[in-house]
Amino acid sequence: MKKLMFVLVIASLMLAACGGGAKPAAEGPVEITFTMWGAPEELTVWQAVVDDFHKTNPNITVKVDVSDWDSYWTKLNTLIAGGTPPDVFAMDAPLFLDWQSRGALLNLQPYIDKTPGFLDGFYPQTLTAYKTADGYYGLPRDFQTIVLFYNKDMFDAAGVKYPTADWTYDDLLAAAKQLTLDTNNDGKIEQYGFWSDTWDMELLWSEAIWAYGGEIISADHTKTLIGEGGARDAWKYIDSLYKEGVMPTPTAAGEFGGDLFQSKMAAMTTIGHWAVPGYVQAGINFNVAPMPKGPKGQATSVNSAGFVVAKDSKNPDAAFEFIKFALSEAGQKRLAELGFAIPVLKSVAESDAYLKQPGDLDQRIFLDSVAFAHMKPVFKGYEEWAGVVGDGLTPVFDGEAELDPTLDEVIVAADEVLASQ
Fold first, then answer.
1. What is the pLDDT of residues 70-124, one digit of tens each?
2. Which pLDDT does position 141 carry in this prediction?
3. Is the dihedral of CA 45, 107, 110, 370 positive or negative?
4. 132 three-class SS
């Protein structure tokens, strides 16, 4: 993920925090706002969800606003600082505690308690991130597992067998070497065997650390563990991908711009379901396989986008009614049409609405990966902590610093962030 900047004005949040619990719904017609990040085409499907909701809730009108990732957080911070937050807004799970601890979010537990069995059909892993000691301040909308994507045409041209569920990280490196091509021998790589983002943990390095037997952060969120035991071995493996030349350095990848798999400059990548529509639109002949195995087994991460309600929403009852509909079977089936993520309701994820999307992509790989998935860590200070790690290790992967001493320095700085929370 890209770095975000929380520009929350404390005074406005304190005012928000002073509000009480659920406020009575306004009598007569009300309008609520729902703000989220996403691609422009997502607005069409969300509008369909809103239209379906309005048919059964004619007194509630939902205005949807969709922005790109960076613009979304800037706009959201501005609205909250100005005391005019959206009623419902999207939340990235790792950032949830930072927002909840600032008093910006409404406790949804009273509403959940009034709806017996409401959470029974959810994947339990998706709920963990939003639960606090005094209840849920958010709910998952959909979720992602990270898998290995591969370009079938590039594999076929190189005579390399497709990845399987038995692949190891060594197998990935060996295949990536065969798939890295300098076709005209001018010293410039035209096709890389592999590419993934290594700034944030979600796409590669958390999976590798867990598969090598390491951990990321202590259970009490006071100590950074990415340099201990198998975690350090995982970093050495990732560094080898750069040193072997099968993956472009972060600086080089930035110069190429965007997603190298989507631009057909890389034969493999590790990413979530959100990338599927873009890859289809780019005309890539691709499929997916589970994340490779490490010395201590197989691992992937699970992360979710969620719904939260602003603490000072003027229409919290209507806001929760909309969330409840979006998380119903009807709403989740509509969202499955997006093709960006996995529904949080098991009944929908296991149905044709998700499994039989257009194309021949093996959708079940994403679901089966839940069996060995770890939740992407959620803790206060995540954003700053992630910046310390991502920025700190980039010089290593650019070939400008040594791994071990740099990792040691990064861990010290990351622990300072945790201590300040």
1. 999 999 999 999 999 999 999 999 999 999 999 999 999 999 999 999 999 999 9
2. 95
3. positive
4. strand
The dihedral built from the CA positions of residue 411, 419, 90 and 254, taken in this order, carries a sign that is: negative
Distance CA 388, CA 411 (A): 9
Extract long-range pairs of 221-224: CB within 8 Å, 24+ residues apart: 221/377, 221/379, 221/380, 221/418, 221/421, 222/415, 222/418, 222/419, 223/415, 223/418, 224/385, 224/389, 224/411, 224/414, 224/415, 224/418
14-66: pLDDT as tens digits: 333 333 343 444 457 999 999 999 888 788 889 989 999 999 999 999 999 99
288 contacts 152 by C-beta, under 8 angstroms: no
Please give the helix or strand (H or E) that residue 286 lies within, else none. Answer: strand 286-289
Contact between 96 and 130 (Cβ < 8 Å): yes
Instruction: Please give the sequence-ordered ranges of beta strands (E in DSSP) within 38-168, or none if there are none.
Output: 60-67, 88-92, 131-132, 135-136, 139-145, 147-151
**Burial (Cβ within 10 Å: 0-12, 13-18, ≥19) of residue 316:** buried
